[in-house]
TrEMBL record:
One of its GO terms (biological process) is DNA-templated transcription initiation. Residues 358-681 form the DhaK domain. This is Dihydroxyacetone kinase-like protein. InterPro entries: DhaK_dom, Dihydroxyacetone_Kinase, NagB/RpiA_transferase-like, RNA_pol_sigma70_r4_t2, RNA_pol_sigma_r3/r4-like, Sugar-bd_dom_put, WH-like_DNA-bd_sf. It holds the Pfam family Sigma70_r4_2.
């Protein structure tokens, strides 16, 4: 039997996230892609995140179970065909269609259960989820069970309605929040008021303004769609009392979020428009994911209008309603395609190409290129070509800052030499410590009479060689102190923090040190500030692909096509755990949750964020990660003082990302804001 979704087969397969319309049946998914969409087995394997052998097994199982004969069984694919057509025709993100008839449960109850399944698929930690009201929405909330989320906010999309109905906005929001272990945020006002003047007055109230501001931050909304029949939700909620519908809303065919729309999906403006408190249709369109759960032939015109207006991008409905929508749009089935011939799989890459000359010359040649590119900022010391100094300095009475480590982390370490940062850096061979000689030369070059502070990562070679250089410098009468950075939380448990590696958090620590020295603080004060910054800096990384050394041009460790490595080191070391490849938001959550669990910040605290490429990750992916990190921090009430995104501290060509948070206090924030200028970092 082939592996189920989310499970691993014997060859390491892990299925990708399955679109809603296939339910939880990968055989159905594979059969549809092969027989209906005409994909090759290789293309299906890539789309599902499996091997071709697993796809073969799925297709064989589909035939055994009777899902596929030579002709696809119509009963099995009716809902799927309608869902696919609705998705394609209206450009939806996804669509789930359930049978109109089925068992003892009402259509509303079954739509609610399907809506709960949909929301469970999409909702994530840190989300702000808006919710409307109605029978179907309440059924969804009662069917939902999604424990384990963090920092979720559920906010009403409108004010409150009459308490004569059980499916009020308050009831729907509170039950949904309870199911998600989320914070429930009400709208402290009626959904409709008696005059525009009263609405204007209420909108000035600070509490209501704060609640509406949270509503404006919604990432997703769950909503029902109301017809305008006398027994509909919009009527029972008190929106259309006193003949308002006949006098002003003759063109309306339905209501969504308490607003009225015509058959083309356009807003119908009437007296209720300026008396309604809650999200409006323009703001609704700005919410990234808009999940509508609605069905029944009486709602068909309203659902069609909502789709035409672009207010919905995820739809949960039933077969009869879905077919009626497509019929109204003039949709016709297209003939099935015959599957094309099976293609041979691509050969796996085992050798890495590099733009180098002789491998043994790569470090020196790269360093010469860096010095030429930034000749207005840095220079090599005569006789010590791997000791790099800032052109400005030394200054009398200023503490000198010397950093260093192995090559392969470009732009580390020479990229952080400059005014307001380090005064000098010593560079070693690839992923190897610089010897004591260049470190001592750098120390002598930057000594301004106030002592020198060494900062380097916690690697045995660095510790040994910087200690030896310090002894030699002190023998010459130069006062030296050293801070060993330990920000990599994956490399050792919290109770053994002193054993951790120093990785991308170095960027923030170099900045703090340079600013402290630039303020002419004494050596003891600089040392104390840098130690505090190190203790408040947390980093964790993951790799999608291993890096490769110039000498071998082969990956430094083996990683399957559907795996990621968590907690990798910056010297090409494998991580502490391996797991299936996940979407970017899940990867960001994984890193952030580990960091926040140890940092334990309070609401209102400030952090600096670094989303760092490990060498082979493009900017697009880094910004996707930052977007998620900022969303999660905002939902927790943590202020982001500043964000850095890019290849600040790499591991050659490793495809991956590290996340660093510096837990700021007022003094550290001030030092982070201080001006600096170097090849890799500029603060004006």
């Amino acid at each position: 039997m082939a592996p189920r979704p989310g499970s691993k087969s014997g060859d390491g397969d892990t299925a990708s996230a399955m679109p809603l319309r296939y339910g939880d049946d990968p055989l159905l998914w594979a059969a549809w892609l092969y027989y209906e969409e005409g994909l090759t087995q290789g293309e299906i394997a890539e789309k599902m995140g499996l091997s071709r052998a697993s796809v073969n097994a799925y297709l064989a199982d589909a035939r055994t179970r009777g899902i596929v004969n030579i002709e696809i069984a119509p009963d099995k694919f009716r809902s799927l065909s309608i869902a696919q057509a609705l998705r394609d025709h209206f450009g939806l993100q996804d669509c789930l269609v359930i049978p109109t008839e089925g068992g003892d449960r009402s259509l509303i109850a079954r739509l609610g259960a399907a809506g709960a399944q949909t929301l469970q698929r999409f909702v994530k930690s840190g989300d702000t989820l808006a919710v409307t009201w109605g029978r179907t929405v309440l059924a969804l909330a009662e069917a939902l069970d999604r424990p384990g989320l963090q920092d979720v906010r559920v906010v009403q999309a409108t004010g409150g309605t009459t308490a004569k109905i059980p499916w009020t906005p308050e009831a729907c929001a509170s039950r949904l929040a309870e199911a998600l272990n989320a914070r429930s945020i009400p709208i402290s006002a009626p959904a409709t008021v008696s005059s525009p003047e009263i609405r204007a007055m209420l909108m000035q109230e600070p509490v209501l303004a704060e609640q509406l501001a949270i509503l404006a931050e919604a990432d997703r909304i769950v909503m029902g769609i109301s017809s305008l029949r006398p027994e509909s939700t919009i009527h029972s909620s008190g929106f259309l009392d006193g003949g308002v519908q006949h006098a002003h809303y003759q063109d309306a065919v339905g209501s969504i979020i308490g607003r009225f729309i015509n058959a083309r999906g356009e807003s119908v403006i009437g007296p209720m428009h300026e008396r309604t408190i809650g999200i409006d249709l323009d703001a609704l369109r700005r919410i990234p994911q808009r999940i509508a759960v609605a069905g029944g032939v009486d709602k068909l015109p309203a659902i069609l209008a909502a789709l035409r207006g672009g207010y919905v991008n995820v739809l949960v409905t039933d077969v009869v309603t879905g077919r009626g929508i497509l019929t109204a749009e003039g949709y016709k089935d297209t003939p099935r395609r015959s599957p094309p011939p099976v293609q041979a799989p691509l050969t796996a890459r085992s050798h890495v190409k590099k733009l180098i000359n002789a491998p043994q010359d790569a470090v020196d040649e790269a360093l010469k290129g860096a010095l030429l590119a930034h000749e207005h900022l840095i220079a090599a010391l005569p006789g010590s070509p791997r000791a790099i100094r800032a052109l400005e300095g030394p200054r009398a009475g200023k503490v000198g800052i010397v950093i260093g480590g192995g090559a392969g982390h470009e732009p580390g370490f020479w990229g952080y030499v400059g005014r307001g940062l380090a005064d000098a850096a010593a560079i070693g061979n690839l992923f190897a410590s610089p010897p004591p000689g260049p470190i001592l030369a750098a120390t002598q070059a930057v000594d301004g009479g106030a002592g020198v502070l060494y900062i380097y990562g916690n690697f045995s070679g660095d510790v040994m060689n910087f200690d030896m250089a310090a002894e030699l410098a002190m023998a010459e009468g130069i006062a030296v102190r050293a801070v060993v950075t330990t920000d990599d939380i994956a490399s050792s448990p919290v109770e053994s923090r002193a054993a951790r590696r120093g990785v991308a958090g170095n960027v923030f620590i170099f900045k703090i040190a340079g600013a402290a020295a630039d303020r002419m603080l004494p050596l003891e004060a600089c040392d104390a500030l840098v130690r505090r910054a190190n203790a408040r800096t947390y980093t964790m990384g993951l790799a999608l692909e291993p890096g490769s050394l110039p000498e071998t041009r082969r990956p430094s460790f083996e990683l399957g096509p559907n795996d990621i490595e968590i907690g990798v080191g910056v010297h090409g070391e494998p991580g502490v755990v391996r797991q299936p490849l996940a979407p970017a938001d899940d990867c960001a959550d994984l890193l952030l949750d580990r960091i926040l669990a140890e940092m334990a910040p309070h609401e209102g605290d400030r952090v600096a964020v670094l989303v760092n490429s490990l060498g082979g990750t493009p900017a697009m992916e880094l910004y996707i990660i930052l977007r998620r990190v900022r969303q999660r921090l905002k939902s927790r009430g943590i202020e982001v003082h500043s964000s850095l995104v890019g290849p600040y501290y790499t591991s050659l060509d490793m495809a991956g990302v590290s996340l660093t948070l510096l837990h700021l206090d007022d003094e550290l924030a001030g030092l982070l804001e201080a001006p600096c200028r170097s090849a890799a970092l500029v603060v004006p």
